[in-house]
Amino acid sequence: MNASVRRTLGATLGAAAGAALLLTGAAPASAVPQRVADSFEYVTVDPTGRIAADGTVTLSGTYRCLGSSGPVVVSSSAGRVSETMTVRYGIGGTQAVCDGAEHRWENTGRPSPGSLQPGTVRVQATLTELRAQGGLPLPYFHAAQERDVTLVQG
């Protein structure tokens, strides 16, 4: 996926997430689409990621989903967990194909300089579809996974 498509999908997901947040404050909870992932659908995160000398982080894993009416993206974030808070940094997005087969995903991103270093980080990957609901694209969550990952230099 080229950088232009990633920026477009990222902007679309951001707009949809913002719309969903606005709607949750203005509408009853039943108006916001809720979804529990089917056991058939999943996203995994590999136990090891890479961090380059310039701070670029690469995360990967697998996913499987079936049936979508809008664009689907595997997004990922990474952060260090402390006793007082967790700060997460977005690590890219990959367009997903929901054809029932297992696929690999790999996301790359460069968070703020010095924000992540080699060692253990908490990673979250989410398989999210944008579905039109009442004329607005709202997020529809197919699957998510959160786990500790070891970032290695390289």
TrEMBL record:
Keywords: Signal. Transmembrane segments: none annotated. InterPro entries: DUF6299, TAT_signal. Residues 41-153 form the DUF6299 domain. The keyword Lipid metabolism does not apply. Residues 1-31 form the signal peptide. Coiled coil: none annotated. This is DUF6299 family protein. It comes from Streptomyces thermocoprophilus.
